[in-house]
Design a protein that fits this description.
Layout (H helix, E strand, L loop, with lengths): L3 H5 L3 H9 L4 H16 L2 E4 L1 E6 L25 H13 L4 E6 L7 H12 L4 E5 L5 H10 L3 E3 L7 H7 L5 H13 L3 E8 L6 H14 L3 E6 L16 H14 L9 H6 L3 H7 L4 E2 L27 H12 L3 E2 L14
Parallel strand pairs: 1-8, 1-9, 2-3, 3-4, 4-5, 5-6, 6-7
Helix pairs in contact: 2-9, 3-10, 4-5, 5-6, 9-10
The structure holds 5'-deoxyadenosine (5AD), iron/sulfur cluster and FE2/S2 (inorganic) cluster.
Amino acid sequence: MIEVERIQNVDLDYLTYLLNISTHDEEIFRTADEIRRRYVGEEIHLRAIIEFSNICTQNCLYCGLRAENKDIKRYRMPLESIIERAELISELGIKTVVLQSGEDPYYTTERVTQLITEIRKFNLAITLSIGERKFEEYKIWKQAGADRYLMRHETASPELYAKLHPHDSFENRKAHLLELKRLGYETGAGCMVGLPGQTPRDLALDLAFLKELDADMIGIGPFIPNADTPLANEKGGDLQTTLKMVALARIVVPTANIPATTALGSIHPLGRQLGMKYGANVIMPNLTPNPYRPNYSLYPGKICLFEKDTACVECTKNMITGLGLKVGSGYGYRIEKVRAQ
Ligand code: 5AD
Ligand code: SF4
Ligand code: FES
């Protein structure tokens, strides 16, 4: 029998042990599913994502959007197109829009504020996912009406973080996430699984960090090697370990909103369905318009690139009902109180 309390107390030795062997996987999965049901219920929330710019000043070693990659076609959506797309999302009955981009300085404090101000009129919860910005900007955008901010911590191993991120440190990333929390954002963190040199102990550190932050949202996906990056020849993350990390994250932060990520769906045709069976309660249909969509190429084999325009909405809804779960009807804020057992 697994010891749920030791998991929830983020006992690093115990988590490392569980991550090292597969003996207890089925029990971890079952426990995560029970905890998901008990704490966040049967609803799976849809978050429509608009990847509005693939231009990035950073050079994260794993990512296809890194500044030094000259082999992709870059784009920036005009503000009006982003706003128009958000309106469509609202008309489709979705209640959250995620605005994601590389770290693109074109979207200044004022331009992002304008996006928030306009998109708020459509009664959407607004999630920003635009990388590290000035603390002052986080504050201005919160006041303008942004509700949530996603910024994965990527890895909680300071050594690995430093290797993967030229000119950035885990300590700095952590400071940003703490500031977002302090400002009252629902704050999302998360990591990749199977990064080069990443050990089970490092993954245990990721879980401990998610607990320490009390992450409101937790995105976990496999690392997928991208041929246009310095990590082209590395091995990627596997399905089983990624699912185990999703399940453990659910046990460690029972009320968090946890997506079944696109990367998980990209390494296995049923990856996202399995994610929702083992703890995830969010899915993010891709609403990036064409012709831009295929150019947001973080990693190869990304799903949904050639589907018709809004097809992912129906597809994700069918996935949810097919699993016997319910499509979320509200904004899907993190629940305030733990419901009765
Ligand atoms: N494989 C998997 N995930 C990746 N990301 C970036 N590059 C890759 C890759 N090669 C993830 C990072 C980032 C998010 C937007 O995409 O975790 O935070
Ligand atoms: Fe830029 Fe984000 Fe990719 Fe890093 S992970 S290169 S910050 S888009
Ligand atoms: Fe995009 Fe299924 S979610 S096609």
